[in-house]
Amino acid sequence: xxxxxxxxxxxxxxxxxxxxxxxxxxxxxxxxxxxxxxxxxxxxxxxxxxxxxxxxxxxxxxxxxxxxxxxxxxxxxxxxxxxxxxxxxxxxxxxxxxxxxxxxxxxxxxxxxxxxxxxxxxxxxxxxxxxxxxxxxxxxxxxxxxxxxxxxxxxxxxxxxxxxxxxxxxxxxxxxxxxxxxxxxxxxxxxxxxxxxxxxxxxxxxxxxxxxxxxxxxxxxxxxxxxxxxxxxxxxxxxxxxxxxxxxxxxxxxxxxxxx
Length: 260
Fold this sequence. Notes:
The chain is an alpha+beta fold and 260 residues long.
C-alpha cells in the first residue's frame, strides 16, 4: 500500500474589512491552469518556501516553524493581492500607499517568481514584517488519501485602509470583497466554486458582525486541528471533523468531487 503524501506547510489569510453591510473578506479566483483549486474562489495563500524559513531564522525569536508560516502568509498576501503587512523599521505604522507602490515596483515580480525572498525585501527596504497582525483562526490538514496534501494554517488580518487589494492576474484572475455568508450563498447558487474547507471557514467567520469582533473571538479561542475523516457515499462525501473545532457540527456532506 502506498504511503500517504507528506503534507506541505502552508498559510492562508482571511483579509478583513468592515463594509457598509458589515464584515467583508477578500477573496480571489484561482487561474484555471493552476494545479490546485483551479477556478475556485479562495483566500490568498500558499506553501511555505525556503525564503520564508530563512526570514524566520533571521528574526530569531520564538518557534521558527510557526514564524515561517506567518512570513509565508505575509508574502502570499503581498504577491497575490498587493497588500503588505510590514512597517518601516522602528516605526509604529505600516508602510503607506506611496511607499507600498515603490516596494511593489522594486520587488513584487522577483518575489513572485522565487528569485527573491522576504528577508531580502525587508533588508533592502528597511522593513519589519508585522507578523503580530496575524491571528490564527483555523488549522486544516488534507486527508491522507489525497495525492497533494497541505498542512494549512488560516490567519485573520485587518486590511490596511490605504492598501488597494487586487488580484495579481497570474495565479488569480478575479477578486472580490464579500460578506462571508453571501459568498457561501452565491457558491450554492452556482456563481462560485468553493472548496469544503473554504466554505466552512466562511460560515465560521460569518458569526461575527465586524472584523474586530472576529479577531477578538479568534484570539480567545483554541485552534483545533482538522484532519477530515472522509466516507464516500452515493450522495457525496461525508466529512467528519472535531466538534471542538468550532464549525457547529461534526459531520458535513460535501457534494463537490474536488472537495478536498
